[in-house]
Every structure is written in C-alpha cells, then in structure tokens.
Design goal:
Elements lengths: L1 H22 L7 H11 L1
C-alpha cells in the first residue's frame, strides 16, 4: 500500500514539473528575472 502511495506522489510531482515547464518556457524569460528564481528552487 505504501508503495502505491509513493508511486502516485511521484507521478503527481512529475506531472506538475512537466506542467510548469510547458507553461513557462525558460528561454523566453529574461535572464535577470524568472530564471534565477527558478534555478534556486531546484
């Protein structure tokens, strides 16, 4: 049961990562603005 929970959690986090990558194209953002914040969160 615990393994299923972990798999679901991992899938959700993968989906949300994909979603934010699609929603915010990194190359189109200014270097001094969003990219530095995004990199520090990883």
């Amino acid at each position: 049961m615990l393994n299923d929970q972990l798999l679901i959690t991992k899938r959700i986090s993968d989906e949300s990562l994909k979603f934010s990558d699609d929603k915010i194209p990194k190359r189109s953002k200014p270097l001094n603005g969003f990219n530095s914040e995004n990199d520090s969160q990883k």
